[in-house]
UniProtKB/TrEMBL annotation:
Keyword Isomerase: yes
Alphabetized InterPro entries for the sequence: EboA_dom
Segments of skewed composition (Low complexity): 192-203
Keyword Isomerase attributed: yes
Keywords: Isomerase
Biased composition (Basic and acidic residues): 204-214
Superkingdom of origin organism: Bacteria
Annotated region (Disordered), positions in chain: 192-214
Molecular function terms, GO-annotated: isomerase activity
Protein name: Sugar phosphate isomerase
Length: 214
């Protein structure tokens, strides 16, 4: 990510980022009421440009080796942009399900950028089936493209309960005279149990090989 990002930064922005990463590396985790690297998260957009701020913040969080406690503090106290960076950083920094409450919180919002960040690889690995299905519906409700849902094909395959929920949602929209989004039909097709199953992912998370409830 660093190699992809730095060619797009101005020399002052690159120098600022390098300094911020050194600070984060020298004072990882939580330090007192506020760590220096947490201040740098707030400056990222102004220093490096808003188009690059997400990547910059993820790099700082990674350099700080932020664990669940630190990520939770940044998420709870941060702006929407900082919360989004935490969600993007989760699969790189938290191996187990301890940070799942952050994903669940993001999915309760109507901020489409937060919702999109919440349905990444961490959610694919750690959301249980009923919460994952509701995450898919949340994307359809809010207009977040389902192409951004990590591991969608594998988790949706043969999921008859998800198919039922999608059918109910389509029927409700039709009855109300509202258009059914094309993304709903895309996901519905993936739930077909007779279709060729997708290649198995390397990490299926804590819910077995098919992601279905027993």
């Amino acid at each position: 990510m660093y190699a992809d990002l730095t060619p797009h930064l101005t020399p002052p922005a690159r120098a600022w980022l390098d300094q911020a990463l050194r600070e984060a590396d020298s004072q990882p985790g939580l330090h007192g009421p506020l760590a220096v690297w947490e201040l740098r998260l707030a400056e990222a957009g102004r220093r490096c440009g808003h188009d690059h701020a997400d990547a910059v913040r993820v790099l700082i969080l990674h350099a700080a080796r932020a664990g669940t406690d630190a990520l939770t503090r940044v998420y709870s106290q941060g702006t929407a942009a900082e919360r989004r960076a935490v969600l993007h950083a989760l699969p790189h920094l938290v191996a187990g399900p301890d940070a799942r409450p952050l994903v669940e919180d993001a999915l309760r919002t109507n901020d489409t950028r937060l919702v999109a960040a919440a349905v990444g690889p961490y959610a694919a690995r750690h959301l249980p089936p009923h919460l994952w299905r509701h995450a898919v519906l949340k994307c359809l409700f809010t207009g977040v493209p389902v192409t951004g849902i990590a591991d969608l094909e594998r988790r949706a395959h043969g999921d008859v309960e998800l198919a039922r929920m999608l059918g109910d949602h389509a029927a409700e929209r039709t009855a109300a005279g509202r258009r059914v989004p094309e993304d709903l039909y895309r996901v519905l097709a993936l739930t077909d149990p007779t279709a060729t199953p997708p290649a198995q992912a390397a990490d299926h998370g804590p819910h077995g090989t098919d992601g279905k409830e027993s």
